[in-house]
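[step 3/7] fold_predict: job queued, chain A
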Amino acid sequence: MATLGLTVANDIASAALIFYVRGKALSQTTYDKPLLKWLRDNQKSFPSGNLQVSEPVQGAYMSDTPGFLQGYNEDDAINFAQASNLLRAVFNWKEVVASLIITWTELKKDGITIVDDSKGGRTSEHSDVALTRITGILENRMDDYGESYSRQMNLMLWQDGTQDAKQVPGIFSLITDVNTGSTGGLSRVTYPWWQNRINLALAPSQANSTLIQFFNSEIIQLKRFGGKPNKALCGSAFLDALRSELIAKGYFTQTGFTSDKATDLGVGGLHIMGLGKFEYDPTLDLLGKSKRCYVMDGRRVKLRPMEQEDNKILTPERPYQYMVFLKSMTWTGALEVTQLNANGVYSIV
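[step 4/7] structure written:
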């Protein structure tokens, strides 16, 4: 039986975690998670020592005050406006952890013995074989762990936080179905500019191209106040409806249907000028929202991990009474929005 030092085993496990989990895209082995990848690709960290993630926002200006710009003559009295329109959107950061345990019995069944001593253990002359074997075990565990971790992070960043008050509230808590209540501590009712776009009653029509016409107009509204929406994530039913409208108008090919050349039986990616691609996100189907589409501005919706706390790998000490091998990973941060009217939620009926 080969013998492997505990320190070496820990190093291998850490390396495996880095490879499978700490990359920006995380594990993509089971189904795509475009929201998770997009958020992590564009995330911005914040320093520790802050109780909350806070960003300045402003929707009202001195020009909203009647008489701000006034005509005058001779010694007319002049009105002075006071600038007091700056507000702050505040989001609480949360902590999450995912842990992995492997028993020494499992390792023994694969021909590996870990020597747990004060010097970090030792390796036998068959260490190369041992490394190969434990890497095989860890590869299996890390593949499972990586996919499980990315699934749960992805679900958390979609859901509204009601599934667990200690987790980060996700997209559903920011881009909501109704413009009531508060987001980031600011009332959507008190501040009408602090509202996302909503249309949950879109009726697709192949004859009238309802969805296509709607989004050509809606893009203008999303950009009205400086928004630059650059991500549209949709469920399968929504994409099917959009594709059906496109096909109904004969957009199969630019060369016509009578060419002797091969004719595609479908259409490529669905794009719209000013936004980009309508992208399928399987998680929306999983959450029962296959008829939905979420359009977002990546400058205004941002994942904010705490510095040095982004997928932090830990190696807990083995409890003396348990013969196990332990690894954990923590993540601390928040999901914020700094301009709601540049984002929208849409649904077909």
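[step 5/7] annotate
The chain has eight helices and 16 strands.
The chain has one domain: 2-48+88-348.
exit 0
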